């Protein structure tokens, strides 16, 4: 496959991610932060996000499995998750987290469990999307092309 | 009289009743209240209105009622209760008035009775007296007879003598119509007696049987008396009764009884009343016995009978007697008098008066005529029927009326109270609803604005991105419009939020150190864009940058654009300028944000309505202006910034309290009263709309909205803010000439309390600006003093000595011959345009003068017109254009470029936020605290990108350790929501530690060297939060943070916050 084609694919894919609402402007900002001195910044941050989130999701699952649910703790976890997801621009995860927190506030276990499932779903979806994205980028890099940037001006 | 009396009495009774009913009501309601208190421990807060009209004259009852109406739980019960009370009240008083009526009428009757009795007794007594007098006299006659008739051998009295005497002494006996004397003759002496007298003793019986024919009366017709044991023939008689002479008194049944009784008792004896002979009137006969001399006073009846000589009789004409008597007395018409002989109780004999029996009031007085055997009495009656007891009737009716009125008032009051209570309940309900609605509104606004801002950020960000893509001109225009609208929307949301906060009174002012000059510079830079935009609209010039981008980047780039485009032909004629009196201290304590907001509002309005001329913001101390009020008026009319006439600003503060009461101007020594004027040459406010200018949502007329947009909320917010700053706002506006808004605000001097407030590094900014040009000299060429003053002000802020000249020649003279070398010459655009020849000459000469380095020449340009100048002066080297409005930073930058490096005289396009950020952050050591690894990494990445030296910390406690002085950090970005120690707490602790150390250093307990020679530790801490609501911001300020940036980072905001600290 030609590099140009892959580049176009990448741009289209990124655009589709934005269109479908998986990502928001923050991701672009993140990309802005990546430069020669820090070539893998985005990938690092994203993988850090997934690692962190995996831990948080595990903890959440355990926390909600308790006979007496500590909603404060749950809320703190979800807040973490929301913060990090909004930092990388994973919009759908963030939105799921917002809904989750609302249920936390009213201490609705049913709602929380549903939301946890939702967040997990979004998380895995996002993970897939990001992995695809990075794969495309790696392909471009491997093919010797440069990663097209969606310019984001301030 | 009685009517008046009744009236007054009625009034008194009414008052009494009123007081009484008040008392009753108050007692009752007090009980009610006390009972109610136990039932319900929480009386409702209602009652101010209910009791308003209730018994104002009695404090006590007022209080009681007040309390009573606080208790509204059982309104229904109280209503029925009142009804019952009212009913019993009316009934009770009806009964009472009946009683009063009875009592009063009985009083009247009693009085009448008394009157009658007294009158009757009086009459009886008089009658008795008169009678007694007559009786006495008759007794006297009897003594006379016994003395002169029987006492002498030869009688000294005969019929004629007696008659004459009796006649002449008749006045002594007003009651007797006649007197006669009958002598006692035994049968044995009859013949001799008859012979002696010359008539026979006649009997009376026939006379009694046929007594009526008075006129035909003839004593000779009587039969001679039959033979009896003794006789009592009348021998002497008064002429009136001379017909009884020779008649035997013992022969008459009544008379003989009388005579026998008289001689037995020795006292005057009365007959029963009978018809008198002849006159045919009712009369009585009084009989006295005449005794032989020497009868002892205590003689027995037998002795008396034996000693009797004769009998004296007097005829009393009772009828005429009484009539005569009554006529002598007053008020004879009012009573009827009856005199009765009641010897026989069952059959009283009327002696006088009509016998008409009347069941009315009667009084009986006993009469004593000296005869114990006979009983007489006088009965008196009133002639008229008793009058109606009007007094009683009117009184009781009056009372009744008053009572009914009072009852009516009660009723009306109770009804009214019930009504008011109902209304009040409704009001309370509505009020609660309204309050709830208000709360809901505020919450809604807060939520909605928050919720709107979040997507708006997305919209704006996307638009921003879109603008960077490859768009054609039309698309770009669309996008720009969309972005402008978006920003306007966000601004509007903020305004509405502000208004909501002001309405709920939640707005509080900050107390931080601030530099008004910097604030005003900011505002000016914000608006310069709009002004340019306006100019662009007017002259239809293209340019391709956002009009809303504040700051120097846009301006410079735009200026550049025009400078090199050589296309512009039309002058922009709207100038912005700021002038701050040098009396105003550099650093003040107050709320810069709100001050800025006021200025922005006022300037925003001015810009909206001003097409040409100028907008000038001046800041003075109030004290300065008081001195210069008089001087101001003459100069300002012509001598304005742009030459356009303006509205006299001193008119706008004429009403201010600060000026009217000069004495109260220095309440605290460290308070600084500022007076700020915003003067424009716009179209002014129509006179009819001037009164409502500060009302929220008020606009001159709806068409304004269509022309200029805006909500009309700005001025009302400004007014509230000014009030919060303990100031006043006023304006003067002349249509077609312009408006001047003036407000005062009280700030605090920072000198006295600098330690208490956090030190922002604002000073650094002006310091860093000023040092470079300190001691330089500048020449400003401008023929408008007002404008020159502004230029001078800005140059002086940079530490440059300024001289102002208005003419080329004068300028040249100063440059060449002046004592000190002039480093720079600033020429006003207008001067330049006017005198091109002069300028040529000026430049020729300028080059000739060789006093060291020739002065740099700057053109103070009104942006748009610069291009024209540029065409002319492009040949002349060394000329730098400084776009207006002047601002210290801009000016400094321009000067720096020109003075430092001639080649860099033109600003480059790179001064975008990112570049500026890079400048600002390069080499800064920054701590980022966030518990979220991802966030931490992103933030660190962002700041590193701008060249900052970033240290990260995941917990609040680490941050505190790292930021305990001495340290090398320039700033700290702190996440607010962290486990264990959150951002607020961490900041608070850091500030405490800093304060502690600063204190120690200040008191010399610790050497400054130990703390890197920094005597005042204050690291800039910025909160990082996704929460953009104002409350969070306030909380940040409260715990000692210097500002906040929202997550995720927006370069513009980051720049704005960071630029406050790093210059």
UniProtKB/TrEMBL annotation, chain A:
Primary location class: cytoplasm
CDD domains: HPT
A Pfam family hit: Hpt
Iron is among the record's keywords: no
Domain of life: Eukaryota
Presence of keyword Cytoplasm: yes
GO CC annotations on file: cytosol; nucleus
TM regions (residue ranges): none
GO molecular function: histidine phosphotransfer kinase activity; protein histidine kinase binding
PROSITE patterns on file: HPT
The entry's keywords: Acetylation, Cytokinin signaling pathway, Cytoplasm, Nucleus, Phosphoprotein, Two-component regulatory system
GO biological process: cytokinin-activated signaling pathway; phosphorelay signal transduction system
List of residues that carry Phosphohistidine: 79
Subcellular location: Cytoplasm, Cytosol; Nucleus
Ranges of residues in domain HPt: 38-143
Swiss-Prot/TrEMBL domain comment: Histidine-containing phosphotransfer domain (HPt) contains an active histidine that mediates the phosphotransfer.
Function according to Swiss-Prot or TrEMBL: Functions as a two-component phosphorelay mediators between cytokinin sensor histidine kinases and response regulators (B-type ARRs). Plays an important role in propagating cytokinin signal transduction.
Protein name: Histidine-containing phosphotransfer protein
Organism this protein belongs to: Hibiscus syriacus (Rose of Sharon)
TrEMBL record, chain B:
One cellular component term from this protein's GO annotations in UniProt: endoplasmic reticulum membrane
Enzyme Commission designation: 2.7.13.3
Residues in CHASE domain copies: 153-379
EC primary class: transferase
InterPro entries in UniProt: 2C_system_His_kinase, CHASE_dom, CHASE_sf, CheY-like_superfamily, HATPase_C_sf, HATPase_dom, His_kinase_dom, HisK_dim/P_dom
GO molecular function: cytokinin receptor activity; phosphorelay sensor kinase activity; protein histidine kinase binding
Subcellular location field: Endoplasmic reticulum membrane
GO biological-process terms attached to the record: cellular response to oxygen-containing compound; cellular response to stress; regulation of meristem development; regulation of seed germination; regulation of shoot system development; response to osmotic stress; response to water deprivation
Residue span(s) of domain Response regulatory: 925-1062
UniProt feature coiled coil, ranges: none
Name of protein: histidine kinase
SMART domains, per database record: CHASE, HATPase_c, HisKA, REC
Pfam families from the UniProt entry: CHASE, HATPase_c, HisKA, Receiver_CRE1, Response_reg
Residues with 4-aspartylphosphate modification: 975
Origin species: Hibiscus syriacus (Rose of Sharon)
Catalysed reactions listed for this entry: ATP + protein L-histidine = ADP + protein N-phospho-L-histidine
Top-level taxon of the source organism: Eukaryota
Transmembrane segments annotated in the record for this chain: 7-34, 86-104, 388-410
Keywords of the record: Kinase, Membrane, Phosphoprotein, Transferase, Transmembrane, Transmembrane helix
Residues in Histidine kinase domain copies: 447-749
Membrane-topology annotation of the record: Multi-pass membrane protein
Database matches in CDD domains: HATPase_EvgS-ArcB-TorS-like, HisKA, PRTases_typeI, REC_hyHK_CKI1_RcsC-like
